[in-house]
Amino acid sequence: MHALLRQAARTAVRVPSLAQKPSVASRAPRVFRTIVTKGYTQDHELVKYDDATGVGIVTITNYAQSALGDVVFVELPKVGDEFAQGDQIGAVESVKAASDIYAPISGIVEEINETLALEPGLLNKSPEDKGWLCKIKVSRPEELEDLMTEDSYKAEFETE
What we know:
The chain is of the alpha+beta class. The chain has helices at 2-10, 62-68, 115-118, 122-125, 150-157, and strands at 36-40, 45-50, 55-60, 71-75, 82-83, 88-94, 98-102, 107-112, 134-138.
């Protein structure tokens, strides 16, 4: 019996002391943080800018969709179109009215939400998430400073 215990003790896994540095393979990977900034316009557009990718997702605000009523048609820009801040990039038609959409920030359109052609009502159901309009590769991120913060937008337009 003692022989078995001695054999087990010899083959036991050694635990490194706390003073030893872990090997390169066992180190945890570095995690980089991304900052997503939201900027709002007076015309009720919103851009969610990701500083890691340099891409801004353009949407209309919840306030805008509720003021428009049931959306029946969405006109979007084309991939590759370049816009300056404030340029018209599309339009939204509802049962109540038609409204132009303006670029909240300068850049080049990288992607459009093609689902809106078949389901324009997504703007009503999920205007700031599934109802996004386009993704823009932002050329002038400093323009975010010209936009309203979420708190200032809500204070001005969503007061009851």
